[in-house]
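Protocol step 4 of 5: obtain the predicted structure for the target chain.
Materials: sequence only (see below). No template structures provided, no constraints applied. The aim of this step is simply to have a reference model before the mutagenesis design in step 5. Sequence pasted as it appears in the construct record:
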Amino acid sequence: MQFIDLGAQRERIRDRLKAAIDRVVDEGRYILGPQVTEFENKLAAYIGTKHVVACANGTDALLLPLFAAGVGPGDAVFVPSFTFAATAEVVALAKAEPVFVDVDPHSYNIDIASLEAAIAMIKKEGRLKPKAIIPVDLFGLAADYEAIMAIANREGLMVIEDAAQSMGGSLDGKMCGSFGAVGSTSFYPAKPLGCYGDGGAMFTNDDALAEQLRSFAFHGKGETQYD
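Step 4 output (structure tokens):
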């Protein structure tokens, strides 16, 4: 039995899929055309955030918020020890250091006591500056964001939610992807909300942050010029 049968899924929507692709080809707006804006607006309404910023893939959806937070050399970013490689990989790409945190044995999401201990250890050592937390929501189950946000607010850390494995899940009536300063997801075909190709998106309620992320996603372009 296949883990995911994209062929069977595709057969159910073949006509709709072909019509949508034909529309893009006929209009000739292959990159960041009106369909992307329509998609962002619909996804924002579904997730319940003010902004959705589409990007090339799920890795960029994690990396660009780190850039926006000014994460770089000498900074520590806390990530769960059980996740896809990209969650930690983006920290290295930002020239910072990932600090791996144990996961809860029941949810497999980041363990709060271990997170507290990791932050205390980094502060005591003094070599790195705690800068951000990237919790990962696994198997459709949101991490403990009440506790995570309390820690982040106390320590002045940015929270970037990795919701690539939880799209459609919710916690206390709030959709996965809408927690923290930024939520991120991947549209890799095998993800819960996948596409036939690659893609990613970032979710936020912060107007300035959304504008910054959109600029980063398109080579620093502003409303009328490249900054």
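Step 4 remarks: The chain has one domain: 48-217. The domain at 48-217 is CATH 3.40.640.10 (Aspartate Aminotransferase; domain 2).
Proceed to step 5.
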